[in-house]
Amino acid sequence: MFVPGMYREPDAQWIVELTRRFPLALLMTNGDDAEGPYGTHLPIISDPPLPAEGITDLTGITLLGHMNRGNPQWKALRPAMPGVLSFAGPHAYVSPTLYRFTPAAPTWNFTAAQVRGSIDKIESVGETLAVVRATVRVLEADFGHGWDMSESIDYFRRILPAVGAFRFTVTGAEAMFKLSQEQSGETRGHVCRHFAQQESGAQRAVAEYMSRVTETS
C-alpha cells in the first residue's frame, strides 16, 4: 500500500479504531497456478478484543474471520498462507467548487487500512463455533441491539459444516488517511465544514476524521 507521508496514520491506534468501526474487510490471497488472486468480503474481529488505547504495533495480533467452505478461496488456502485484509473507512468526493480558487482538480478524500499477515484454517468444530460466537458477540455489541444468541446456538451448530473459520496473524499494517492535508488550513476547514453539514453519514464521518487530523498536525 503506497502511503505518502502526509497521509500516514498518526499512530497504530487509528488503524485499530478503523478496523473496529468498519470491520467488513476484503481478504485477498493468491490462487493456485491456474487461478488468479482471490478476494472475499467478510467481517473481521480481533482475538482478544484490542484495547481502546495503548496499541503501538499490530504485529503478532490475531484476527478471526469466517467464510463459506464452498468458496474457492477457502479451498485454496494453505497453512500459514500470506494474505492481505483491506478495510475501507469513510470516503467522499471533493469537488473543486469547495476550493474557492482556480485552477484546481477534483479528488477523493478517504480512509483505508491494509493489514498483512498469514492465514491458518480452523478445522475443529468447537473452535469454529467459538469463532462464530465471538463474531456475533463483538458485532452485536458494536452495531446491534443486545440480541441474545443463546437460543440460536443449536442453529449455529447445524450450519457449521458450511462455515470455514480462520486465524489471521498480523505481520504488518498501514493506513492512509487522505483528508485534504495537501491544501491550506483555510481550504481544509471549508471542505470539512461543508461535509459536516451534509445529510450523508459518510461525508459527516469524513469531516470527523478531517477535524481529528487537523488536531494532531
Provide a quick synopsis of the model:
Helices cover about 30% and strands about 30% of the residues.
Notes on the protein architecture:
This protein has 217 residues and is of the alpha+beta class. It has a single domain, classed as Electron Transport, Fmn-binding Protein, Chain A (Pnp Oxidase, Chain A, Roll). It has 6 helices and 7 strands; from the N terminus they run αββββαββααβαα. It has a 7-stranded antiparallel sheet. The longest helix has 19 residues. The radius of gyration is 20 Å and the shape is elongated. The mean pLDDT is 94.
The whole-angstrom Rg is 20 Å
Which segments are poorly predicted (pLDDT under 50) over 5 or more consecutive residues?
none
In CATH, the topology is named Pnp Oxidase, Chain A
Mean pLDDT: 94
Which architecture per CATH?
A: Roll
CATH uppermost class: Mainly Beta
H/E series: HEEEEHEEHHEHH
Question: How many domain modules?
Answer: 1
Number of strands: 7
The description of the largest β-sheet is:
7 strands, antiparallel
Strand order of the largest sheet: 2-1-5-6-7-4-3
Strand content: 25-35%
What is the number of helices? 6
Cα end-to-end separation: 22 Å
As a percent range, the share of helical residues equals: 25-40%
